[in-house]
Amino acid sequence: MPEIEAPGTSLVQRIHAVYDALPAGERRAADIVLDRPGELALWSASELAAQAVVSNATVSRFVRRLGYASYDAARREARAMRRAGSPLELARRVATGPDSDDPAAVLAADTQLLQAAHGLLDQTMTAEIAARMAHAPRVRLAGFRNSYIAAEYGRTMLAQLRPDVEMLNAPGQTLAEGIAGVGPGDMVLIVGLRRRPAGFRRFVRAVAGTGADVALLADPGIRETPAEARWTLTCPVEAAQVLDSYVGVLSVLRVLALAVMQQLGPAAHDHLSRIETLHDALDEIGR
């Protein structure tokens, strides 16, 4: 590999981009760095090698595969992350703080996770996803386990703004039935937060195989980001308390919904108005 430093991409993004192709030893080194990316600033190559139980030569090959000219170049980026208060580093510090169920501690952790989630948002990517959600013939959302709840929240907001927004993995139907309902030009947002079920990547591949555009909303712990996803949004969920926090995830979904509303313009207000008229006719919503 040429001895140049790949510009414009973070240390963590570079690892995700090559993770699938890493040999076993380099993957062990990658796992350690992904768990604590900012700590790379403090480790020598020998220390990382010892933690991963690999040779120094393996560590050298690993950083070069990421596009760095040397191990020191990778360390310089890790130091910059720490100095700049990287959202990933912030999320990691929240995750390793004192375990407490005190309401003030929970509020502090949620606040930091919200800041980290918004700090990781790529505005260009957000605008691209919102544009596809606004103008695609069909929009589908999907998620498993706790991710289903977040995906359903996103569906609820988007369904107020435009027609033909549904869950891809709705109760009472198989995954195949849901996937068969989308095709080229459609938009699918998959929420894939830890812990993802077995077969998750196979599911993403199957959805992308329909020709639909796929966006993935995942936590930083995802290792093998499915290449079939056109966009990947990263949102931390791990806090000091035992249970993960989804406040950042819900906020990111709300940002997307508001961006879709902006894209749709008057059409979104017209759709909302039709819904409210039907609510009144059916006397569905209490006052």
UniProtKB/TrEMBL annotation:
It holds the Pfam family HTH_6. PROSITE patterns: HTH_RPIR (PS51071). InterPro entries: Homeodomain-like_sf, HTH_RpiR, RpiR-like, SIS_dom_sf, WH-like_DNA-bd_sf. Residues 9-85 form the HTH rpiR-type domain. GO terms for biological process: carbohydrate derivative metabolic process. Coiled coil: none annotated. This is RpiR family transcriptional regulator. GO terms for molecular function: carbohydrate derivative binding; DNA binding; DNA-binding transcription factor activity. It comes from Rhodovulum euryhalinum. It comes from the Bacteria.
